[in-house]
Amino acid sequence: MKTSDDIELMDDAGSAVATDVVAEGKITTLKQVRAEQRAELFRKPSFLIGLAITLFWVFAAIAPSVLTSRNPRQAVRIDGSTFARKPPSGDAWFGTDSIGNDVFARVIHGTRSILLMAPAIAILAVIGGAFFGLIMGYYRGWLDEILSRIIEALLSLPVLLLALLVLTLFGRSRIIIIFTVAALFTPVVARTVRAAVMGETELDYVTAAKLRGESSFFIMGREILPTITGVLVVELTVRVAYAIFTVATLAFLGLTAGDRTTPDWGNDIADNYRLVVADQWWGAVFPALSIASLIIAINLIADSIDQVTKQ
């Protein structure tokens, strides 16, 4: 005959088995969903176009000498004379700038600087935003209220103005630029992650984890975080696009990490945009088109991922 203690032990065992089944079922479902999402993603033309353009610029950043053999800091010379302010031609595909540098070479070599900084900014912003968003969305209460008010205050201030202030005070090194812009992007990511986490905390798998006696940090890191990876990936790609625009704008304003002769899309636009009114548009237009193409490509990827994860 079963005693009350035996029945209680059986109930506890059954509860543990039930919660384990819920966890295993959640993992299996997540794997299936992600596999289907990846397959759907690679069937989207917009994703493939954006990926192809992005990979081209990544290749240009990694191996610029494969795409152009010209020195981006050395004036093009033909028949012993400087080939300056010449329009696009067979000798210089994108023309030459005001001092004779090959614009195509500077566009290709200028990719490296921006693609080193923008992903680093986005990764730091997503890490910081995920940390604060998880805490705010899971604990809620007074902690959420305080952090939410701070985030709202930061979001009310223009990013570029804050970046200009910080960089003017602390210098223009690449590390300072990366951490400054990342810190300014973190509140936006935190607010998005908070909304996603608040929706997840009401679901059964979180309740099951609580019944198992798991700690709050375990639940946030091992249960909730994997389910919001789609949100984080979208935020990462979107922040990369914003970071490209922000870094290029700061370079245009003269807040660049290198010297002015270093190939940089924002610097080159700043150095040549006045020539557009003199019908010498190529020195500024081609770097601007490069920025636009990369941002559009990354946004195509982000939109495709967002559409797939919301299906």
CATH topology: MetI-like fold
Helix content: over 70%
Tell how many strands the DSSP assignment holds. 2
CATH class: Mainly Alpha
Indicate the structural class: mainly alpha
Strand content: under 5%
Parts with pLDDT < 50 across at least 5 consecutive residues: 1-23
Order of helices and strands: HHHEEHHHHHHHHH
Biggest sheet character: 2 strands, antiparallel
Q: How far is the first residue's CA from the last residue's CA?
A: 53 Å
How many H/I helical runs? Answer: 12
Silhouette:
elongated
Widest sheet, order of strands: 1-2
- Radius of gyration equals 26 Å
**What is the CATH architecture term?**
Orthogonal Bundle
Can you say what the CATH homologous superfamily is? MetI-like
Oligomer: single chain
Domain module count: 1
Structural descriptors:
mainly alpha; two-stranded antiparallel sheet; 12 helices; disordered N terminus
SSE layout and pairings?
Elements: H1 4-41, H2 45-62, H3 64-67, E1 77-78, E2 81-82, H4 103-139, H5 141-155, H6 159-170, H7 174-200, H8 204-211, H9 216-227, H10 229-252, H11 265-272, H12 282-309
Antiparallel strand pairs: 1-2
How would you describe this structure to a colleague?
The model is unreliable at 1-23 (pLDDT under 50). The protein has one domain: MetI-like (MetI-like fold). The N and C termini lie far apart (53 Å). It is mainly alpha-helical. The chain has a two-stranded antiparallel ribbon with strand order 1-2. It has helices spanning 4-41, 45-62, 64-67, 103-139, 141-155, 159-170, 174-200, 204-211, 216-227, 229-252, 265-272, 282-309; strands spanning 77-78, 81-82.
